[in-house]
Amino acid sequence: MGFVELFLIGVGLSMDAFAVSVCKGLNMKTLNRKHALVIGLFFGGFQGIMPLLGWLLGKQFERYITAFDHWIAFVLLAFIGGKMVWEALHEDPEEVCPQPRLDLKELFMLAVATSIDALAVGITFAFLQVNIWGAVSLIAATTFVLSVIGVWVGNRFGSRFHTKAEIAGGVILVLIGLKILLEHLGVLG
User: Fold this and answer.
1) How far apart are CA 159 and CA 95, in angstroms?
2) Given CA atoms 64, 125, 49, 92 in this order, what sign does their dihedral have?
3) Which DSSP helix (H) or strand (E) runs through 67?
4) Rounded to 5 degrees, what angle do the CA atoms 75, 80, 82 make?
């Protein structure tokens, strides 16, 4: 898996964090750079830790499922991406944005909640022989940057991008899962 694919996975995974960051920015009367950096660190940190944990889990079972690992990768990525699209299209607008304050306990829970998908992606990394340190670094950095940008976008432009970001992230993950499957089946070279 190359840099572009890993970067796109990072973008796809970070869309939940981006959407929550937009909400956090919406709730700031003026942009608070320190809060934006803290939000970025929480989301980026967890988006980097979770695939590493998933990779460690996947490595434990790798020898048992190498014959059908590409199907597992496809199903996990398609499910995660499909779930993101579904939730974006069926979300209650009143439940989109969390509370306006920067509560570290709440931020911790949001970071965990938005990075669960990354755990499943980390499992697929174990089967695909991905350089895990490069992958988690890129995913963490991408999420950090997009989360900080999300706070700024939310503060500046409002909630117009929330649903579009969720849909885009879901579609990216589904397409990468499909690409992995088609490559392993020999359809793509």
Assistant:
1) 12
2) negative
3) none
4) 90
